[in-house]
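# step 3/5: fold
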Amino acid sequence: MKKWIYSLIAASALSAWASVPAMAADEPAWLPATAATRLQGASAIVEGASGANVKSTLYVFMDPNCIFCHLVWKALQPYEAAGLQVHWIPMGFLKPDSAGKAAALLQSKNSAALLKELETHYSEKDESGGIAPLAQIPPTAQTQIERNMQLFQDLGFEGTPTIIYQGSGGRWADLDGLPKLGMLPGILNLPEQRITDPELQKYR
């Protein structure tokens, strides 16, 4: 994809992101049946339960510098211990170094560990993910990021984080923004987990 096309996608996504509320809407938007196959093929960082321990699967479009993506990551940690597997689909549009950080995640030999570093060292003051961006983005990573952004747009999403989960009747649904903590058991189809992080208490 040519650089000017990538810039157009990034500008469009950033414009849409600015209008997204911090809290997710209470009602999901249902996705076409083909969405699941496309999401499974997206370049992602897989975190949480694995193998026979997976009880629930979630897909999340994120930007490494997105503060609400950071809060979602924190909220999901107890659920990962209870059987949740999360596929974090990185894009890079919020800040000049977002794409470099997304590329670092995708190119890492241990992407889940690097994602944990990004989130545990996240600067809430600066709204900046806590890893160094790649100075030069390899062509492979550039293609992965562009395809993730194109999928994001193709599915009609409007901002990060966008959370995609399997709802009633096996249908896939999406929510924009940070869900209320009380919504998580229903979204994830898992027992409610204790969340003690003081920063998340206002989102109950």
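# step 4/5: annotate
DSSP finds seven helices and six strands in the chain.
# step 5/5: archive (pending)
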